[in-house]
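pasting for the record
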Amino acid sequence: MTPQEFVDILKKHRRFVSGQPGGERARLQLKELAGLKLNGVCLQSALMSGADLSDAALRKADLSYADLFAADLSNADLTEAILARADLRGSNLKGTRFGGADLSGVDLRPGALIIAAAKFQIDEMSEAERARAKFIKSKISRSSLVDASLVEANLSEADMYAANMSRADLTNANLTKALMKEVNLSGANLSGANLTGCRLNGANLRGALLVNAKLDNADLSGAVVPSTLEDLPPDLRTALADHLRWITTNGQAGKRAVLPEASLSGVDLSGANLSAADLHGADLSGSILRDAVLLCTDLRNADLTRAKLDGADLDGANLRGAVLNGASLKNTHLRPMQLWRPGGAVDNRFVRASLAMADLGGADLSGADLHEADVADANFEGARLQRVNFAGCRIPPALAALAKAAGATF
């Protein structure tokens, strides 16, 4: 398709939308449109399944009712665009900017191979388009909105079943009556979002920020929901809210939580994201940290006596010298954490989780994954070690024998 042919398609489509003679619906399935500047373009009801629109500029574009099944819109700019009732099933929206966009009634359910096969039956396909169709069919899955910006976007009554929206920014978004069953919203920013009547059953909101979010009549049955910050002391509430903004913006906003020797006894931080926070020496005795995200968190010498850490993710965390007497760490993860370079590049270095010199006397570690964790001089006396994964750990023979007898793996 030449540039002039593309311009002619847009002109005919505009006449099609307005009902003028000579109009023709735009058929842009599987077309390569990456990086194009299409601000304000009218592609209402256009057929664009499988099209590559990555990095495209589509500010204030009209894509309402458009067929964007399995389209690639990663890192595209759709600020204030209209996508009402558009078909975005199986689309790639990673890093896409939707600030102020209208996505009311949009379909973001997972894609399906049988649907892809039907949509990609196009006459006179080029070799490049055939290759792209084959690639999409092999990768078709749930819609991805990882790291997408949806600030003040209208997603009312949208169907987002099982979409991946981890770390998405949904600040002040309208999600009233949206279907978000089994959606992954881990680490998402939902501050001020309106979730009234939203169906979130089975959704994962682990580490999500819900400050001033409206959840009236929302269905949260079976969902993993972080504890509400409103129940915490004001200074701690502010510190944790700033910390999550620091995480979700890669340090561009907010600030890291630095709370050494803080008094947090009995606090409920279930599902909270405290990754890389400084909590060394903190009093977290009796605290509830179920399903919390504590990647590379500094918990050296912290008091976690009788704390509930079931299902928490402690990969790369430093618990050197921590006191965990009677704590519950069932199904926790204490594996090596891979580092990332600025800009998102993967680093080849890993940070091992550390339990060196930690006191785990009487703790319940059933099902915990301690792969390659540093457990040097740790006290496991009286601890429950059923199904613990000690692979790559250096532990004394006596403890190894005890753990093996309890069903631990090495």
